[in-house]
Structures are given as C-alpha cells and as structure tokens.
Amino acid sequence: MDKKQLQTLLEQVANGGVKPEEALLQIKTEPYKDMGFAKLDTHRGIRQGMAEVIYGAGKTKEQILKIAQAMLTEQEKTVLITRMSQEAADYVKQYLDLKYDEMSRTGRIGKIPTPDGAGKIVIATGGTSDMPVAEEAALTAEIYGNEVIRLYDVGVAGMHRLMDHVEEIMSARVIVAIAGMEGALASVIGGMADCPVIAVPTSVGYGANFGGLSALLSMLNSCASGISVVNIDNGFGAGYLASMINHLDSKKN
C-alpha cells in the first residue's frame, strides 16, 4: 500500500464507505516481514510513496522469487526487480507473470500504472552504448507513474542530433542525462534546460576512463547549474529521483 492508497482508504472510512475494522485489516501489517534471508520493508510505500525494489544482483533466483511473492501477498500492485540475470528471470517466469527487459536486466511483475506525474521526464544518452543504463532509468520512472521521453544517441560528438530535440528538452519537468567517455552531455543539457538535470556517468569509454570515473568527475565538476549526479551506471537511482521530483506537486494536495 502506498501513500495515495492509504489516503483513499482513510477517506472511505471518513465518509462511511469502509468500516474502521475493515480498514484496520488492510493496514495492520508489521513494519517489515522477516523472511530469514531478507527483511521485507512492508511500510516503505506508506513512508516514501514508493514500494521497496528488489536488487537482483547477488541474490539467488529462489530468493528473488520468494521476495516477489511476499510483496504480492502484501498487495503490491507492481514489483520492480533490478540487475536481474536472464537465468533468474527464466526461473521466476515459471511461477509469476514476469516481464523481463534483457537490455537493462530489469524485471517487472504487474502493470505499469497510468502516468500521474506533473510533467514529462526526458531520458537522454550520449551514445547507443549507454542504452542499458538509460532503459533501467526509463523503466523505473515508468513503473513509478511517469511519462518518459527517450532521446538516445544525442551526444556532443554530433551536436545537431541534440539540437533537433530542443522542444522536448525545454518542456521537460526533469531530465536524466546519461553518458560515458568524458560525460559532457550533462553540461550541455544543463546549460539549455530550465528544470533539474540528473547526470548519470556510465562505464562506457576507451582506455583510461577508469570504469566511468572520468565521466563521474566531469559531471561533478560541471559549470552548468541545476545538475545533480548519481553513481556510475546507476540508472535506477536516476529514474527514482526523477520520479520523486516529478511528483512533488502531488504532495501539496
């Protein structure tokens, strides 16, 4: 149950549509469910507005399945699994209706909700090689109820490609700029847009790019204002943060 669902439930109690004892049964869950190998945070959706996400790397396929099943038992409408292997995806598919994106290694159980964010989130990449990280960000944002526009392979090596999308950039509520090499894309977009820009350095690059460290340092040292930076290849973190920004207006209501 997330914050919106809880508010709706309480309003139904207030207007007599739901009995208090019925509502109590729906929200009377422990703060977390101890599964032995994991402690499922069942109240994260209420606290933060977004349910817990399963980080698949390092978990066995059996653990991933059990956590996903427990989340569905707790009435989670959509379960997101990041960094999920093909082997784990094939295993979980035997038991649950899993949709798996091989490029981003992202799994989803349940429907993608209707977008309810205040605006559009633009996901832009410097090159095609950055797409796995970009898709992780894009799918994360979509699963959390956002309309996403993808602008792929619009890096600074060919500025005309980016300039063909000025309208999308200028009308975005949040932009996620994803690039490897020297990471210049974030600075260029940051100098064009009037909205927050989330920079994501990737490990794409030749020789001494140090696994993405060169792009990370460039983005941290950007002279453009309004840029925040997440860790190397952290598409999920960027998509999550972009969704939070895009839903800030809903907190005022």
From TrEMBL:
NCBIfam families: LarB. This is PurE domain-containing protein. GO terms for molecular function: hydrolase activity. SUPFAM superfamilies: N5-CAIR mutase (phosphoribosylaminoimidazole carboxylase, PurE). One of its GO terms (biological process) is 'de novo' IMP biosynthetic process. The lineage of its organism: Bacteria, Bacillati, Bacillota, Clostridia, Lachnospirales. It comes from Blautia hansenii DSM 20583. Residues 119-251 form the PurE domain. It comes from the Bacteria.
